[in-house]
Write a structure and sequence with these properties.
It is built from 15 helices and 4 strands. The protein is mainly alpha-helical and about 375 residues long. The chain has a 4-stranded mixed beta sheet with strand order 2-1-3-4, with helices on both faces. The longest helix is centred in the C-terminal third of the chain and has 30 residues, at about 350-375. The two termini are about 20 Å apart.
């Protein structure tokens, strides 16, 4: 049975170390907030103001009208007008432009004759995501211009307005403006919490081995669970403080709405934190040097959370084997919880399976940490 007095004594000892060591406070409070700001501003998947160059061989009112759709679009920013492919290639090679629009010399004549005309769009494919979106948006510009021409011709014929047989009315639920930051912030929170929590506790036991104080600690009546839980408690409290800071930054700076229950947010974060902290302390138990423990916790915590959780890459698009591996990545379930709470405003009646699996991971890590320390001391 755990002794509250001995348990709190270990926790108090860890608190004193954190307060005295400014690096621990920096890692626990300042760095998470800085990472949230850095990722929040740097990771932006919205396509805006793509640098574009133009070679207008037609130089006609029709071609200028067509280009005005690019110039008035928030997705493109026309930088230069060129008169040959060599200058276009220079801009694409140097990165000064990502899209080039080449209008043929017979553009106006073909439009007036009612014949289809090919407008060449060259896209820098070295950035596949931006290139894919740019191709889609240039296609939309061409479609808008084509509809304007058809509507104008129908009007001249006196046939009334152009009415399409089927008109799609898309509507995005949960994220109406399709802001990438609304989707990114929950993922950032999971990545930061996993990395920081694992790194904070990865040095706790390893530090005792390096300083030679582990022998003194085990010579006292303190039991293994009291050591493990006592060392984790201060970092658990700091982790919840980080969650509050991240939620506040998301609301004030990035305007990411929290539509669900704040209590459920902190409950989910508590479960995830428990697993991450005990994962870190397990690494600390197995490694007797702080440097090695920190490196392993960083790699094992960051890479799976970043790559296999569905934060950056959709799990559905991964190979079948990799999809199976993602089931053991706890951040997969935490991100699903966060997106459900933040964007959809739903509760455990829908998200319960993610909470259960996250709790199972936390329980396994708690048992594993206690068992490894007991075996280490024996």
């Amino acid at each position: 049975m755990l002794s509250a007095r001995r348990f709190m004594a270990v926790a108090r000892k860890e608190w004193i170390h954190i307060i005295r060591d400014w690096r621990s406070l920096l890692l626990a409070v300042v760095i998470p907030a800085a990472l949230i700001l850095l990722f929040g501003y740097a990771l932006n998947m919205d396509l805006r103001n793509v640098p574009t160059v133009v070679w207008d061989q037609s130089r006609s009112p029709e071609s200028r009208e067509f280009l005005s759709l690019f110039d008035g679009s928030p997705y493109f920013s026309i930088q230069q007008y060129h008169t040959g492919y060599s200058r276009i290639q220079e801009d694409l090679d140097s990165g000064r432009a990502m899209v080039a629009v080449v209008i043929p010399s017979d553009f106006a004549r073909m439009i007036h004759r009612g014949e289809p005309v090919d407008v060449q769009v060259i896209v820098d494919g070295s950035d596949a995501n931006t290139a894919h979106l740019a191709v889609a948006y240039t296609g939309s510009v061409g479609m808008i211009y084509s509809r304007q021409i058809v509507a104008r011709r129908i009007g001249l014929m006196g046939a009334g307005e152009l009415v399409e047989p089927v008109e799609m009315q898309p509507r995005a639920w949960y994220n109406p403006d399709l802001k990438s930051q609304n989707v990114i912030l929950p993922g950032i929170l999971a990545v930061v919490m996993m990395v920081i929590a694992a790194m904070m506790t990865s040095v706790t036991v390893a530090r005792e081995w390096e300083m030679g104080t582990m022998e003194q600690l085990i010579s006292t009546p303190v039991r293994v669970p009291e050591i493990v839980f006592g060392k984790v408690l201060p970092y658990f409290v700091l982790g919840l403080v980080d969650v509050g800071i991240a939620a506040a930054l998301g609301e004030w700076l990035f305007h990411v709405p929290l539509r669900g229950s704040p209590a459920l947010l902190f409950l989910s974060a508590s479960i995830f934190l428990t697993g991450a902290l005990f994962f870190g302390i397990t690494v600390s138990i197995l490694m007797k040097t702080q440097v090695l423990a920190t490196q392993i916790a960083m790699i094992a915590g960051f890479l799976p959370t970043m790559l296999l959780s569905g934060f950056v890459f959709a799990i559905e698009n991964m190979p079948s084997l990799i999809q199976c591996i993602t089931y053991i990545v706890p951040a997969r379930y935490f991100i699903a919880l966060l997106r459900g709470i933040y964007l959809k405003g739903i509760g455990l009646e829908v998200l319960w399976i993610n909470a259960v699996l996250l709790g199972l991971y936390a329980a396994v890590m708690v048992v594993l940490a206690n068992r490894k320390l007991r075996l280490k001391l024996e």
